[in-house]
Amino acid sequence: MSFLDTLRQWDKAVTCVDRQDLPEALSIFLSIQEPNSKIYFDIGCLHLLNQDLDAAEKAFDCSIRKDEHLAVAFFQRGITFYRKQRYEESLADFQHAFKALRGNQLIDYKALGLRYKLYACEVLHNMALAQAQLGNWEKAQENLVKALDYKTEAKLNLIDKALQSTLKQKPFKPVEFPSNVLFKPNKHYVAELEKKDYLGKAKVVASVIPQDEFSGFAPLQPQVKDGPTCPKEPEVLRALEGEPHTVLFEFVPETSDELAVVPGNIVFVLQKGADNWASVIFNERRGLVPYNYLERLEISLASKQNEGIPRPPNRAPPTRPERKQGLRRDDSSGSAQVKDEESSNNSLIVKVRFTFTFAVSVPPGSPYEILIEKISNKLNLPSTAFTLSLTSEVTGQSVINANTEMESVWSCASGRHITLWCGTKEETDGKPQSEIHFVALHSYESSNPEDLNFHQGDTITLLSRGETPFIWPDVSQIFRNTVICPRILILIRILLFLFS
Question: What is the rounded CA–CA span in Å between residue 95 and residue 100?
Fold first, then answer.
């Protein structure tokens, strides 16, 4: 059970107690799954009112087990033991209650939700009564004398009557907990249980329309007399250019003038061509999308009922229509042009898979130089820095170079489309194209495990050139076997510092 449910049931049970409906309150308390020490205390008090001493004892045991410093719980269990004539256990609980007071005159439980003050003199009064029942009249008198030190003016008569009874060795009445006084939940927490309408309900203050009771939120409309009986159609999309369409299937562009869309996007069709391609605008970008990937979006009053956009159908996307000389994206003017130079009938679309995928168009039967030039311009890399291949696995037969017969390459095209793979030469060859060798002039012993040890005369192959600047070694280590004048040594260090 959550904290809110516990709080709600607790408040409901306390309300039943205020209405004197004790059985209903007890049943609600017992339905709480994980009661705290205060709720167990309330359950024990209700059992005590019903004279069910065994159930009251168990409830107070649980309350003390939850909170060992709840003095009022010890006090109530002591009264329960006194009614069961178990005076020794009653005396022990009263002593625990007095110990929990920690020398204070009283404990006010109002801050914890209980309108009751437990006085130290009343606890000592009941301790004296338990000792009197056990026949220890002298100790009972000592506790009553001690209670005079903690007495208040309102409790003075009670202590005096008990002292007179002990002198006559007659028992006296115990101080009992008041009935129908229970721990209540925090009123601030209870107030938060109910939902609150902080905004309130709006109302029409002034309107030109007679008996206008509409007070919701809507776009501003001119208020004129004798207006249309039916509400106007939404005019949200009138300010946007083109007709709204919903994207049904994902479309991956293959040329630079095509636009990538995914199912659920809303695009605005500017113009539809005869080749089933449409010039659309999406997120302030213009491009071409197959029209059979789209569905017209109807904006009507039916859509106002929160019907939302229908989910894309779970079926395979249609085939990509062939591009004819028709629509082309024009970013400068923002309108569709009737021209398409790159996707004419006499061009091939070459999709290149690099670290990213891009596409270029070349005339059919183009030589290797034209293809490599277009790809080089697209990658901003020299043609010698990468290689082309017909397959993802680079082999001797699949590599495309200046000696390759391009007719065999273009014969692999399907539907004026072909896919090639591109990689840098270091990745395809597995080693640099040209190796640089050095000869060690001196021996070097590394001080770090990642450095290389070499001896004079060893041949060293350069694998790569790092960006970390060279740190000049100590001059005294270089010339450790040479006797040099200190002034010359200082001059050499200055020159090394200037050139480093």
Answer: 9
Q: Alpha-carbon distance 372 to 427, whole Å?
A: 18
Instruction: For 415-442, give the DSSP string.
Output: TTEEEEEEEEHHHHHSS-SS-EEEE-SS
Alpha-carbon span 415 to 432, nearest angstrom: 38
Nearest CA-CA partner of 71 in 31, 103, 26, 30: 103
Among left, alpha and beta (phi > 0; psi -120 to 50; other), residue 419 is: beta
Between 117 and 425, the higher pLDDT residue: 117
Q: Which of 158, 67, 91 is nearest to 119 (CA)?
A: 158
Q: Give the integer Cα–Cα distance in Å for 114 and 120.
A: 17
Q: What is the dihedral sign for C-alpha 341, 342, 345, 347?
A: positive
For CA atoms 14, 20, 26, 31, the dihedral sign is negative
Strand pairing partners for 386? 424
CA–CA separation, 289 vs 257, rounded Å? 9
Cβ contacts of 173-179, under 8 Å, gap ≥ 24: 174/79, 174/82, 174/125, 174/126, 174/129, 175/122, 175/125, 175/126, 176/79, 177/45, 177/48, 177/72, 177/75, 177/76, 177/79, 177/116, 178/116, 179/45, 179/49
pLDDT over 60 (residue 230): no
Q: What is the DSSP string of 183-224?
A: ----HHHHHTTS---SS--------SSTT----S--------
pTM passes above 0.70:
no
Report the C-alpha gap between 249 and 265 in whole angstroms.
10
**Strand pairing partners for 294?**
247
pLDDT single digits (tens) 246-278: 999 999 888 888 988 999 898 999 988 888 899
How many other C-beta atoms can be found within 10 angstroms of the C-beta atom of residue 173? 11
